[in-house]
Amino acid sequence: MKMSLKSDVIKCEESRKINIVLEYIDSGLPSFMNRIKTHFTESQVRYLIYQLLCGLKHLHTDGIIHRDLKLSNLLLHRDGRLKITYFGSSCICQTGFLLYNKTFGTIWYRAPEILLETFSYSPKVHMWSVGCVFALLLLKKPLFNGKSDEDQIEKIFQIIGTPTEMSWPGVTNLAGMQRYLLSSPPSYVGCLCDEFKRRDTSERDLKLLESFLQLDPCKRINAKDAVENEYFKRIFTFHDSTAFAKWMNEKLAEKGVKKG
Question: Which InterPro entries does this UniProt record tie to the protein (predicted)?
């Protein structure tokens, strides 16, 4: 059409706008959970978290920091594949560290170093978010549901414990921590396992969760090591994806939800 400019041939209009067309995915993970109204089994949670970690491993290898990893930014295909979406806040990081920027991330999934205004941060902020997603899938509710940065910090310390210079070297130099200490708050010991007693969560789950929810980012596991963790040794991708997809579609059929 561009080659033929005759009046009797429809004109091909051009635009300076760029449109990005993404693959179609059947459902967001939160909407699927709301529709089936049941807990995932331990093996199903393991399969979903494994896929999330594989995605993050690829992003980190390519130097991409997502910066808004949360449940609502995860999609679920009807064949059982999990996809990371929404890259509106993402950036490229080739050095491994970025200067502090408080404007990114959803508060319930925001890493403590960001809440406490660290000087710089790394892809390890994602691993904290993975821990928050992991906990939500196990509990079916947010582990830390603060209403402000200060409230979020308080809720994290209540469950994980208040950091010290011994447990997190340099933490008292962070502006957010200095403001927190000025209010003379109680010193929390914290016990993550207490939050999961009613859920009958396995020690294996809790051990992995603790590796994500380390206050000190230097002690927090990275995506590569997490993927290779003993916890995932029993995953056989084809078998798990087939079994999960079958279960997923059976649940949707029970609820009378159309596929596709």
Answer: CDK (IPR050108), Kinase-like_dom_sf (IPR011009), Prot_kinase_dom (IPR000719), Ser/Thr_kinase_AS (IPR008271)
